[in-house]
């Protein structure tokens, strides 16, 4: 299962803390169906960033949090076999 863990990666979001845009990169070694969502600290999904297939390689995503309040948020990237999360901090 170690090989599977290396096939998909969520890189550190930047800038973090951010206002109002945060960038993050996903690296995939194969074509993969992914769902990328933003959650608040209470566990509610507040926005879907992307749902669909990505090809192998690097993929850059940006979340515009202009309409959201200051606080901690969680980026959740889910594939068929793996879920990755990362905390991000919006400061206004």
Descriptive tags:
globular, 1 helix, three-stranded antiparallel β-sheet, mainly beta, 92 residues, four-stranded antiparallel β-sheet
- Return Rg in Å: 13 Å
Largest sheet, if any?
A: 4 strands, antiparallel
Strand content: over 45%
Flag low-confidence runs: none
Describe this structure in words.
With 92 residues, the chain is mainly beta. It contains 1 helix and 7 strands, in the order αβββββββ. A 4-stranded antiparallel sheet has the order 4-3-6-7, with no helix packed on it. A hairpin with a 4-residue loop joins β6 and β7. The longest helix is centred in the N-terminal third of the chain and has 5 residues.
What layout of secondary structure does this protein have?
Layout: H1 2-6, E1 8-10, E2 21-28, E3 32-40, E4 45-54, E5 57-64, E6 71-78, E7 83-90
Antiparallel strand pairs: 1-2, 2-5, 3-4, 3-6, 6-7
